[in-house]
Amino acid sequence: MEGRQHASLSRRRAARLLLLLPALAACAGGLLALVRLPPASRPPLAPTPGTGVAASAGRRVAFEPPPPCRGLVRFDGPPRDPVTGRKVVYLTFDDGPSPYLGSILATLERAGVRATFFFVGSRLPDRAGLVRAALAAGHAVGNHSWDHALLVRLGPADQQMEIARSSRAFLEVLGFAPRAFRPPYGSYDAATCEAVRSFGMEIVLWDEDPQDWSLRSGQEALLVRRVEADLFPGAVVDLHESALTARALPELLARLRALGYEVRPLPTGTAALPEG
Fold it and tell me: Given a cut of 60, is residue 187 above it in pLDDT?
């Protein structure tokens, strides 16, 4: 009797499993489809309501900025040179000045191109000479906050302080405060925009994020392929001052040239010095 009950129970469990198989297969197929998508085709994470968050990979996420930010946020630049008609791409380097800034500047100089550097204010005094050399060589500079804080976790007063303190550091090192501001992690909210507007600045983000910060030594060629995969005229490419990016830069510049692109600095300008 006990054996028959056990056999009956086993058959019922098997029948239930068979009913579940189509659903399980559908779920697995969906997951595999997502994994196989190229990076630019994967569904991006949606920004938190009321904030702006730059795309995590590939082309930027299109969304409506919070009302105080409208007209302040820029993603890309002019797509072509007005004289030559050639395609233009804008390489930007975040998180410096770093120990790799000298190598990056030397590579750019050899290639005869200019880029844009978003410097962290607290790091400026340590490499003030290189920062001045970058400006003298024709590179553009922008403000990347005082200490790379995630601004949306700060209140309005602290966000004002992050931007103002960094602007003063630029004034001490370069004699002016940059107009271009890039919030750390590309994340900002209405309070960020109110501070930026009050200082006569603008938020400059990016179109393309190849996530060079996530790559390991030996993956320099992968960085070049990632940049090329999402490239288009006028694109602003978000890079970082790292050892890997410094090593990959000569090949990246050669590839951009082969594709018919000119590398240009973003038009940035200066901002009013925050009072107080």
Answer: yes
Is there a single domain that holds both residue 11 and residue 76?
no
How is residue 236 written in tokens? 């602003």
**What b/e sequence results for 147-185 when a residue is b if at least 16 CB atoms lie within 10 Å of its CB, and e otherwise?**
ebbebbebeeeebbbbbbebbbbbeebbeebbbbbbbbe
Are 70 and 103 in a shared domain?
yes
Q: Both 33 and 70 in a single domain?
A: no
Instruction: Find tokens 């607290």 and name the residue.
Output: 122
The residue written with tokens 């992690």 in the block is: 185
Q: Which domain, by its residues, includes 26? A: 2-37
> Are 18 and 114 in the same domain?
no
- pTM comes to 0.78
Give the active site residues: 94, 240
The domain total for the chain is 2
pLDDT at 29 over 70: no
In this structure, the chain runs to a length of 276
Please give the torsion angle defined by the CA atoms of residues 99, 103, 105 and 108, in that order, rounded to the nearest 10 degrees: -150
Give CA–CA dist 60/40, Å, rounded. Answer: 9
pLDDT number for residue 55: 41
